[in-house]
Design goal:
Elements (H helix, E strand, L loop, with lengths): L1 E9 L5 H17 L3 E8 L10 E7 L2 H9 L1 H13 E10 L1
Antiparallel strand pairs: 1-3, 1-4, 2-3
Helix pairs in contact: 1-3
C-alpha cells in the first residue's frame, strides 16, 4: 500500500469559501479516479505557528496507481484551482 499525504498553506486572506471549495474538489476525486482507495481531507484547527491549513491523506494499492492519479485529468483540474489559492504545499509519499 502507498500513502500519499499533501499539506497545504493557503495565501493570506484567502476567503473560506475558496478553501471549502478546494476541500470539496479534492474529496470528489475518490469517485472520479480509479485506483484511489481511501481519502481523508481535513482543515486545521491548531493555532501553532508551524501548522498547515489543510491536509490530504490518501492511499493507493501501488506506486503505479499513485502515478495514474497524479496524471489524471480530474486531479489536474483540482491542482489548477488549488494553485490559485495556495501559498505552498508539501508532500510525503511512502509505502506501508
Amino acid at each position: 500500500m502507498v500513502m500519499h499525504i499533501v499539506m497545504f498553506v493557503f495565501k493570506e486572506n484567502t476567503d473560506q469559501v475558496f478553501i471549502d471549495e478546494a476541500k470539496a474538489q479534492i474529496e470528489q476525486l475518490i469517485d472520479l479516479v480509479p485506483g484511489l482507495q481511501h481519502m481523508k481531507v481535513g482543515l486545521n484547527f491548531s493555532d501553532e505557528e508551524r501548522a498547515m491549513d489543510m491536509v490530504l491523506i490518501s492511499s493507493f494499492n501501488s506506486r503505479e496507481d499513485l502515478d495514474f492519479y497524479a496524471k489524471h485529468p480530474e486531479h489536474l483540474k483540482v491542482i489548477a484551482f488549488i494553485k490559485t489559492i495556495a501559498e505552498y504545499t508539501k508532500v510525503v509519499d511512502f509505502e506501508v
